Structure prediction request, 498 residues.
Amino acid sequence: MSQTVDRALSILPLLAEGPADLGQVAERLDVHKSTALRLLRTLHEHGLVYRQSDQRYRLGARLFALAQEAVENLDVREIAHPHLVELNSKIGHTVHLAVYEENEVLYIDKVESRYPVRMYSRIGKPVAITVAAVAKLLLADLSEPERRAIAEKLDYPQYTPRSTPDAAAFLKELTVVREQGWATDLGGHEESINCIGAPIRGADGRVVAAMSVSAPSVVVTADELLTLLPVVRRTADAISREYSGNAPT
Amino acid sequence: MSQTVDRALSILPLLAEGPADLGQVAERLDVHKSTALRLLRTLHEHGLVYRQSDQRYRLGARLFALAQEAVENLDVREIAHPHLVELNSKIGHTVHLAVYEENEVLYIDKVESRYPVRMYSRIGKPVAITVAAVAKLLLADLSEPERRAIAEKLDYPQYTPRSTPDAAAFLKELTVVREQGWATDLGGHEESINCIGAPIRGADGRVVAAMSVSAPSVVVTADELLTLLPVVRRTADAISREYSGNAPT
DNA sequence: TGGCTCGTTGCATCCTCTGCAACGGCCATT
DNA sequence: AATGGCCGTTGCAGAGGATGCAACGAGCCA
Prediction:
């Protein structure tokens, strides 16, 4: 809506691909160098881009701080976290927490017992929306027209033979998930990984987040994983209760 | 430099404090509501702000993704990570990796063996710059006028009695660190936590990052921690070598 | 029902952003 | 050492877009 801001913000994803110099930025934006320079300077003043020693620009440190504060404002995460840790300590598998926002599903927390390293590596990354258990849970709660609109806009990458093939299958799956109140991803994203998930609801009953437990099939079979469903649902319900209780609004 | 972009970007830290509605944003920016609306819409289109159900705005999901990609482009981190993990598995204590950027020192990686939970919680957060071992290492490598300029601009919070008291003491400490090639923080931030750190250098000898090992004094005394100095320095040097070797530029 | 607040829209005015051209520093080439 | 090319930077005039105003409309409460 605002041309200048629009152009300036377009620089950010561009730099996310890797450092770029003034000329490259100007070319990608299709504007004059002097224009790109002014935009970059403004971004720089706000700490969103950083000028490295070779004069090329890359994303700046303030982005970390902002993302940090953004995630801290998500109170679901704060409430859920201890529950996720507790569940993880019980069953040992990876536990995820995700939210839906603006046509994207993203992980906002993760607890992994076996491989603590690079734990943050997936937080903030968009989820494979057509197959992930948490994505199904979050989308299943939307209204029917919304679900249809989204389902038709999506791509359906065939990660594995068990990936959701198309919009029709996805919508059907969402209906199932909506009715049963939990979801699975059995090898739909990676052949050897299974997930089960449950929704977290606010005081009004709307799904505000979703959690899942993932495990490689070499460790537990899909059937064995499904036996964990009750404890996963109990955890999700406990989070829901605590979240609803505290909600002041 | 660009008024419109400047105003738009000023909205981000404002929303970082917490959700705000249109009127509040307009007031804080000192612009007309319609102007604020257009700026917010533009930010919204780029996913940087999100409009929650009560119509108030808060920081959006794309910030995560951007910060995520930004951190992945820091190749020091990628190279260093396996070394940090290895060191951690040897000695068991928390290992940090930090860089200096634009008057700030921030952690970009962390390996913690005993408490894997919320591992990302400090990544991206500004370091206690006047006391942390990594901060001393990174600042010590700057030119003398730069060091002085920064030292005089800083605040010197007295986290503990052992915190760096003022600019003079800090500059003196930086000189020591610069000469000995390693740094410590012995209870300067938290009474019971000690750290030792070593610099990571690029091909040109400049310090590009710093790493540290932290441990509570109830587990190891400061003297015991110092016995780990050789292995910490060896790790840092190994990272430096690998980083310098691969650098194509 | 009426009045209030808050978000939204269309529009004329004026500001500010834009692109141009020229400068200067840096590097490589001869 | 001199030259040419490349890239970042600056000042400026013009034009295009951002701004604030005023009016509308939706939701809420009394």
